[in-house]
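Let us work through a complete example step by step.
Step 1: write down the sequence.
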Amino acid sequence: MLSLKTLSPNQKFALEILIPSLYLLPLVVVWLAPKDFGFGDRAVAWLGWGVGVAGALLWIAAMGALGKSLAVLPGSDRLVARGVYKFLRHPIYVGIFFTLLGIFIASGSRFGLIYLAVVVLPLNLVRARLEERALQEKFGENYADYKSKTFF
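Step 2: predict the structure and record it as tokens.
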């Protein structure tokens, strides 16, 4: 299993570039591709925008709650359990998922929805697992207690 402790600084830097690029790539493709807003249904398009905006607001709130602890790769100097982190352990990943889901529904992008299921969802799950392992190692019982009180 991947361990951040065994990665060289160059490998860590590459991951810090690659991971955000994997979220950006489908947005560029969807932006450039022909649109079928809401798959031809105006109400579905508006629903998509609503889901996307809600996801973006969650994402922004999570980044704000993290403050200086925000990083692409797992590892933190403190356990953040304030703001949206009182309820969710991984609100950024949830926010990213719903932001992209909403944009892809609103724009009527089958490619985007497939990419979301095949790349983004597994990527977020792997990142969450690695992050939880790192936090458990660092904060032990405090993290276990926090984990028991929160959802994904």
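Step 3: interpret the result. The chain has five helices and no strands.
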